[in-house]
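Two proteins were folded this term; both appear here.
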Amino acid sequence: MTSFWSIWISVLSLIVIAGCLILLRLCSKNTTGVEEGKSMGHSFDGIEELNNPLPKWWSYMFYITIVFGLIYLALYPGLGNYKGLLGWSSSNQGVVSIAESKAATESATKDGRWVQYDQEVKHANDKFGPIFAAYAATPLEELVKNEEALKVGGRLFLQNCAQCHGSDARGSKGFPNLTDSDWLYGGDLATIKTSIMNGRHGMMPPKGGLPIADSEIPALTEYIVSLSGREHDAAKAAQGQASFMKGCFACHGMDAKGNKFMGAPNLADNIWLYGGSRGIIEETIIHGRGGVMPAWKNVLGEEKVHVIAAYVYSLSNK
């Protein structure tokens, strides 16, 4: 915040508080010329108005509120750029990475500054840390049978994973469905945990990086359509198979059923990450695809990832 706006906010806030105090003092004095408790000389709808003073409890309440406001503004950052006597802040502002966030937390602790978010995280770690430690010490094969652990994993999933995979984990275009049996890198417990911990970087270059002419793409598309058993032009598909054998098989396999070591999808099961229409398949071949799942080990830590992995596995293994 610039100095101008800092001064403007500070002065305006203090003027408002001072104005409230002055108004309260004026309302506490009898300036009507009529003795307190006597009639003001007029009535409304048959109700006579009396010159009654403000109730004491009402006045005291406002005095207390004003004093509280001044104390609050002195202790906490409420006046422009003023930091407050307690050195309190809601969070570490301006951080753009996990490393910067950790450094800011360490700096605040060293300087004795009270950062509310850091304190809440510390409280949560102290309270729930032992629970996650117990879950982490449990083999995944056993953890998937623990209903309470799966509920915790489900909440962690909603907080961190649902933005891409959906609250029902069924994904969307470009984001895998986690509730079926189709896995790019494998759906066993260990692989799921590895995927969450380290993230995944999938990349198919345009035309697979192969010497495939634009004129070959319609036939190659027809061949890929035929792999999943859909209606197709057999003669055109046979031409496309020759294009596929130029090198597509290196990633997708001779049977086009994919390669989990590379994250190459199965083209023969009619499950499509980006869509399986002829137009979208052609688009994928021409332009390629790139998908990134971030690594969560430095964000959530292995203990929480352990629980999420059990939950994700349970979605497709009831």
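Next, the second protein.
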Amino acid sequence: MSAPAISVAMSVYNGERFLREAIESILGQTFGDFEFLILDDGSRDGSRDIYESYAARDSRIRTIVRDNRGLIVSLNQLLDEAAAPVIARMDADDICDPTRFAKQIAFLNANPDYGVIGSWTADINEFGASHRLEGFDHPTNHQEFLQAVKDDGPLLCHPVVTYRRDVVRNVGGYHAAFRHCEDYDLWLRLASVTKLANIPERLIRYRHYEGQVSARHATEQKIGHTVALWAYHERAAGRPDPTQQLTALPEVGQFDEAFHTKGLDWAVRERLAKGLQYSPSGLRGDGFEMMLDYLRDGGSQEGMWRTVLRLVRYGEPLRAARLAATLSSNRPLAA
């Protein structure tokens, strides 16, 4: 039998709540020449019953069941398991537009110099209603992508990307050190070997809720983003990738020593403090203490008083009071 045109790669971990909608949105694609790989990363809920019921009715679904090893291991295994030259990512809590695959495969066929194509998103909440986000849409060509890297803007929404398998494998796939921001690191590494862009159509309904990975691990994600961007600039300057062999990132406070550089620790702390201002889960987590330490050491107070009010709205009056006290007793470093 000939290989399918697309391998759909979905990792599932305790995803029963939204899994049916996600699977049905894949099976309902207008472009049907695909295999659907569903890797169960050690789920302990009813996920297996759900995806096996669909697999029994549709031969395009191929399931892989094993113990829990984490998302990065799962994504790299799906890369190895895929039979098609093109891989379409999908998460177990999102919903694809029926024309997604048709439009993305057409783009890749027409643009051989592009290795990755995503799309804009329609953002929804846990109940499927519209979720309002501020900010810009994703870049629609490679030049815009490179500018978005410079501007620290959005690059690609991971569960709606479709990419050429060999291009991703040739850069080493997903790197273990960048847990919870493994996609961001991958896009930055790919930017030097291929072109990346997004179709300016909303081909996925991307779900936002407290339980999702990006919400639960906001602090670790912000730290990883900063290091990945620093490594990108190191590579662009012709120096070796300092993160290439890492399986985990150093702790905050150890970056300068670990990478034999000066100022990376401060850059990590600054980005973390700025990024967590808009993250309810981050402000409720351990990143809050890091934010206070950054301010006590003279970090920028820009936007922090608004964060005090935000904490009150999030139902965290004690943390709001602690932040206000820190802002009142500490002055930022002179420019």
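The chain is about 45% helix and 15% strand. The chain has a mean pLDDT of 94. These notes refer to the second protein only.
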